[in-house]
Amino acid sequence: MAETLFVANSGEDSISIISTREQREIKRFGVDQNEPSRLILHAGQLYCANASGGSVSRMRPDGGRHLTRCAGAGPHVMVARDEKLFVICNESDSVWRYDMRAFMPETATACGSWPIDMVAFGEGIAIANMMSSNICCFNEDLHCSASTMLDMIPLCLAGTNAPSGARLVACGMVSDDAGACAILGADASILRAMRTPWPISAVAPLLWQNAGIGVAVWQNRLCKLDWESDRVVWQTQTGRMPESVLVNERMGRIYVTCLQDACVEIYDFAGQLRARIPTGREPRGMALGKGGKIA
Question: Which of 75, 82, 101, 268 could link 49 by a cystine bridge, Cβ 3.0 to 4.6 Å?
């Protein structure tokens, strides 16, 4: 079965469906909510965070059967684990938990100033708070279990499965033109840090490699980061404003949404551009899954 890439087009309230085999958009459907920004695919359902609408939607992957639930202001990144959906809302400085079967909000709590990214980590989740420059870890009941201050403004997070144990990597900004990555241990304590040529604004981990693929949205760069040797392995130019990145390790492909160019770029693991696929306006988040037949 061919794999399908779903892309949230925040500038026109639509979602693009892209065939990765044919390397083209095969369908685009509208959503009624405001500014779809992030997507995840879980148990055959597509979930969408609506940044301006203050809501989260669930739908079939073909766009049918929409259900929408309230969230805090500015819902952003979502994480699914153990039939629970976690959503950070950066304009209300909160994290929400939903029951995915009933698709109803269960609880919410404050998480820090302007939560910018979130990943599953340990027995719960880890959240990067941009304005308070810290990482907060929560269990599934949304009780804070650890908090670590950073010497940078965090912009994104990645979880890795290094041979030496689980790691959390926070990437961010130390100045307008320079960035850093902080490698944290299982208890969220900082183990070490590495500098990057530019602030990494989004990152996708390469599981079991202790490495990741990052983008720098203001410098239009894509790079591979090796967190074992603390170096940038390669870098390449992208389209304008690479907003998010997603990797398919099995196929050896990297997907990048270019906000100002209204497209998705596909790269191989050596950083070579393989395809450029038009999308709707201002593409942001992506989700990858088995598409099958999309009517």
Answer: 75
Tell me the mean pLDDT in the region 255-275.
Answer: 98
Which amino acid makes up residue 97? Answer: R
CB 106 within 8 A of CB 97: yes
Question: Hey, which residues does 4 pair with through a beta bridge?
Answer: 19, 289
CB of 127 closer than 8 Å to CB of 135: yes
Distance, CA of 30 to CA of 44 (rounded, Å): 19
The rounded distance, in Å, linking the Cα atoms of 166 and 158 is 11
The closest alpha carbon to 119, from 133, 135, 107, belongs to 135
Mean pLDDT along residues 49-65: 91
Instruction: Determine contact, residues 15/1, Cβ cutoff 8 Å.
Output: no
Q: Give residue 293's pLDDT.
A: 40
At 34, list the tokens. 């405001």
Compute, in degrees rounded to 10, the torsion defined by CA atoms 105, 287, 27, 215.
Answer: 120
**Locus of tokens 């090796």:** 226
